[in-house]
Every structure is written in C-alpha cells, then in structure tokens.
Amino acid sequence: MDAGALSSQLVLGLSRGMLYFIVAAGLTLVFGVLRIINFAHGSFYMLGAFLSFTIADMLGKQNPAGFWLALLVAPLIVAALSILIERGLMRFVYGQEHLIQVLLTYALVLIFGDLVKMIWGTEFKSVSVPSIFIGNLSLAGIVIPIYYVFLLVVGPLVALGLWMFLNHTVTGKICRATATDRQMVDVLGINSTRVFGTVFALGGWLAGLGGALMAPMVNIGMGMDTNMIVYAFLVVVVGGLGNIWGTLISALILGVAEALGVLFLPNLAIVVPYVVIGILLIIRPSGLLKSVW
Question: Does residue 292 fall inside a structural domain?
C-alpha cells in the first residue's frame, strides 16, 4: 500500500467525520438544552437527504443550481418540520422519564420511515455533485476529491458558527442558561418554551444540512437514518455533552476509524469504529473534553 492511497483514505475519513459532526452537533444541542433523547434526529437527517434529491431533481440533475438550492432549502424545511413536532408533541414530554421520551421519538422514527417509503419509494436515489466540485486536487502526490475539500471547510465553519452562537450571542447564552436552570430563566421573565423551540429547530436544521451534504456521497435510501443516529450518539457521548469542539474531535476520530477499517480490515470494517469508541470511553469515560452542561 502506497502513501497516496493511505492519505486519500484519511481525507475520506475526515470528510465523513465532518458530516457526522454536523448531525451530532444538533443532537447534543437538543439533549443538552431540552433533555430529550431524540431518536428521530436520524430521521431528520434522512429527510434532508431525500428533500435534497427532490429539489435537485426538479431543477435537473445536470443543473448545478439544484445542489445549492437543495443545500439551502432542504435544511430549512426540516427545521420548520422540527418546530411543528416540538410544539405538537415534544413539549408534552419535557421533564418526563427518559423511557417516555424514547418511546415517543422512536414512534416518530417509524412514522417518518413509512412516510419516506410512501413518498419516495424503496429505490435508492442519488444527487449529482455540482460541476464545480467534480475532479480532484493533487497536493504533494495526494489525490483529493474537490468535494471532500469542500466538506473539510464546511465542518469547521459550522463548529465555529455554533461556538459563536452559544458563547457570543444573547440567544445562545439564554440557551446555555436554560440548560443549567430552566426555573431561574422563567423567573427572570424569559420565555423558555420559545428557547426550546429555537433549539429544536436548530437541531433539525443541522440534521437536514448533514443529510443534504451527505446526499452526493451515498445512495439515499431507507435505513440511512438508523446508521446515522447510532454514530451521532457515539460522537455526542465521546466528545462530552454540549462541548462543540469535543464533538468535532470525536466525529473526526470516528470517521477516520471507519475509513481505515475499510482499508486495513475490510472483513471487520463495521466493527472497527465501535472498538475505537470503546477504547476511548475506557480511557475517558466522561468524554474527551469537559461537558459544558
């Protein structure tokens, strides 16, 4: 095996790790502020991918504007749907036992799965990479697909944006305060229900964005929600609850472990990421970085 092949696989792992981070960041926000174990978060990711396919297909697969419009509109649709779910269902289980929350969100997984099957069918879909991202870059003998470079730029920008939002905006600080002491926030006259709706919508938007970005890389089909939600929970637990940078680091580790597992242990590739995560949890059971709420 030459160094070029190894480097290319590492870049693939890092780019996938960026996507895992984007989805997991929404999950850690929802769990940190609302204290909701949202299994339906993977369904939001799947909806983002399917909506991206529909929007891109409406404009024509060869039209580069389809990808950009899908990247803009699909996450917004998922965010709007998240608000309806939060107001119509989730607010009734705040403060309830986690078992009740799990049952409700798992029911949503089944409902969304059937809806996707009814609307889009069971055949795999695909989204074309826009022409600007077709081709490879060659850096020091390493061949890197341009779309992977794009993902490597988007991931840190999302992380920086979330960190700025949580630490340097009034709304973000209110979200952190609500996660720490909701009663005190209510006493101060702040509408905590509005905060909850905002956070849940932001989580849905991040899941939809992850689905839209992943759409050109995979076959879009049933079951992609289940795979993603498992990885998202692993990333959240290992990174440290509410810690954006910890989530980013753990997502990158998971993506690289998956990519190298395919390269070195193809027959055991599905197991390698879980082994790596298990080792990290043994070494750092509280997470790689300190939980912030």
Answer: no
Q: Domains in the chain: how many in total?
A: 1
> pLDDT tens for residues 6-36?
888 888 899 999 999 999 999 988 887 888 8
- Asked if residue 8 belongs to a domain, the reply is yes
Q: Cα-flanking dihedrals φ and ψ of residue 205, to 5°?
A: -65, -40
Q: How far apart are CA 177 and CA 242, in angstroms?
A: 13
- How confident is the model at residue 1, as a pLDDT? 58
Q: Cα separation of 34 and 225, whole Å?
A: 21
Look at residue 155 and tell me if it is in a domain: yes
Q: What rounded mean pLDDT belongs to the chain? A: 88
Residues recorded for the chain = 293
The rounded percent of the chain whose pLDDT value lies above 70 is 97
Task: Measure the CA dihedral 117/121/124/126, to 10°.
Answer: -100
Element (H, E) at 142: strand 142-145
142-145 and 136-139 beta bridge pairing:
antiparallel
> What's the CATH number where 150 sits?
1.10.3470
Alpha carbon distance 272, 180 (integer Å): 36
Question: DSSP assignment, residue 136?
Answer: E
Structure token digits, residue 117: 């099957």
Write out pLDDT tens, residues 86-101. Answer: 999 988 888 778 888 8
Structural domain containing residue 61 = 3-283
Asked whether residue 187 is assigned to any structural domain, the reply reads yes
Tokens of 31: 């769990």
